[in-house]
Amino acid sequence: MLTRLIFLKVRNIEIKPELLIKWYKLCGVTLILLLISVPTYTYFIESKIKSEGYTICNSYSTSRGADIWVTSQHYCIEKGYRVSEEITDWLKQQTTEPTPEDVIKKVDELLANNS
After folding, report:
1. Helices 100-114 and 84-93, interaxial angle, to 10°?
2. Which residue spans within the chain are E strands per DSSP?
3. Is the dihedral of CA 68, 72, 77, 83 positive or negative?
4. Which of 8, 43, 100, 101 has a 20 to 30 Å separation from 91 between CA atoms?
């Protein structure tokens, strides 16, 4: 619909009011569906993640709005926010579940290397 309106505008063809009314109705319906579906989808995704035992680690979450989910709050080291990307990459690479001490040691190592 939008492509058709742009095409008509570029070709300097008069756009019928009926076509604009259809466009406005389509935009309204799309907006309503978006406002309903996004929160619903987010709720179901977060519920699924929580049901699998994950919790949000606010220390690693970024200003870009990305939430970091961890299997244990022991992995959520408050001072690790400066190396959150590196520590999450390291956690993904582990074939066995590291101990909280291993995570603290790795955060300290990464902080020392970044200083």
Report:
1. 140
2. 55-56, 69-70
3. negative
4. 43
